Amino acid sequence: MQPSGFPFGKEVQSYRQTEVVTPFQKQNQLFDKPIGQLIYKAYIWRVVFFSGAGLSFFLSLILVGYLNSIPYKILVEQVTSKGFLKSPPEFLSPNYTVSQTVLEGFIQSLLISDQSGGIYNNFLDEASQLALKQGVAGISQSELKAATFDKFTMNDLNFSGELVDKKGTAILVVSGQFGHQPLTTKEQVKINPLGIYIQNLAIERLL
């Protein structure tokens, strides 16, 4: 048996707003307060929010494009103590200042590299190459890798420091001068991204 009572037996019809009066709409007002008015306000705020978000995104793109178009100078601090370079070296200013941490790491790399074929020889003068070979003779590569610099100082273009082992015992005293050498190959960039050039290297064995 098909139900005949409301709402099952009544055909659904469309009514204009003025034809229907609800308990909340006795004076034919626009909204069934308070729910209808809140829904309308929420709709307006959604329109405002998404319009503002779209405008903000568009302005952000303009700002990023503008900032990327401004030329900038790369600082030496962008090179880590391990020699990782964040930017191509051709943009480095020739008047940059090498930090103590970077120079320490480079000198220690020199001491270690002589044990593996002298790949740093292009960044040493001839006298320094000989001093490096004689200075690290008989010291294992693992011992050099485990050592650290102590009392490392820089004065203008001069440097000096003690290399100590894990126990804090001084192994070597290293001193010399450093400057800058232009880089011409990708291999040089990979090994020595700042183009540091060592002169008058002296290594004194303490053990």
How would you describe this structure to a colleague?
This protein has five helices and four strands; from the N terminus they run ααααβββαβ. The protein has a four-stranded antiparallel beta sheet with strand order 1-2-3-4. Strand 2 and strand 3 (about 170-180) form a beta hairpin. It is α+β, with helices and mostly antiparallel strands and about 210 residues long. Helices cover about 35% and strands about 15% of the residues. The mean pLDDT is about 75. The longest helix has about 35 residues, at about 35-70.
SSE order and pairing:
Blueprint lengths: L34 H34 L31 H14 L12 H10 L5 H6 L1 E8 L2 E7 L5 E11 L5 H6 L4 E10 L2
Antiparallel strand pairs: 1-2, 2-3, 3-4
What characteristics describe this protein?
four-stranded antiparallel beta sheet; 4 strands; 34% helix; 207 residues; alpha+beta; elongated
Provide the gyration radius in Å: 38 Å
Distance between the termini: 109 Å
Provide the helix percentage. Answer: 25-40%
* pLDDT averaged residue by residue: 74
Strand order of the largest sheet: 1-2-3-4
Provide a short characterization of the protein structure.
The chain crosses the membrane at residues 43-67. The protein is an alpha+beta fold.
